[in-house]
Amino acid sequence: MTRLADGRKPHADRDTSGHQRHVNGWPVSHYGPIPRFRPERWNLRVYGTTATGAEHSWTFDELSGLPHATVVADLHCATGPTSTDHEWYGIPATAVLDLIPPAPEVTHVMAWAEYGYAANLRLTDFTAAETLLATHHNGEHLTAEHGFPLRLVVPHLYGYKSPKWLRAIEYLTEDRRGFWEERGYHNIGDPWKEQRYSHQE
Q1: In terms of Cα–Cα distance, which of 72, 74, 88, 86 is closest to 21?
Q2: pTM of the model
Q3: Residue 121's closest CA among 77, 81, 169, 62?
Q4: 73-82, 96-105, 179-188: segment of lowest average pLDDT
Q5: Do 68 and 96 contact (CB within 8 A), yes or no?
Q6: Radius of gyration of the chain (CA)
Q7: Potential cystine with 163: which of 73, 112, 113, 128 (Cβ 3.0-4.6 Å)?
């Protein structure tokens, strides 16, 4: 189940039985090493087909001045585990879009992370009410292994669409596959439809 902190449910409750299995705690899963956070070099960029044609960036300290929200949601991994009731705190993706609007022809975004990792999303998934650029989990800063300093959280899609160590959002006028999508994972990744692998497209 995914729900906002005020109790509203953006999506109706749906059965996550079948291939998904509940796990306790919060399993760690990522590709490659954990990057070292260097605050003097770190920024978050928004670029691509913006409404003005210009790009924008924020330092880590500047993120604290952006709108923030809390979302309580489950996480679903395409390999099967589901962990429940995560409390995320961070910047709503809609706030980024309000501050740096995309051009009208934008249909997708690419979320870029450290080491060139990327996950593609439909703009409608990025603008979902529960999509968050998270800085905190359960009242504490994210740990390095879970994505500190910033992680994109898209709880209504499989976890590979929620990249850790987020560094940029690119506005796209056509879809382009990300890291796992190029390696056989489903281009959309809806857990309610069991969209795990590209052969299901």
Answers
A1: 74
A2: 0.84
A3: 169
A4: 73-82
A5: no
A6: 16
A7: 113
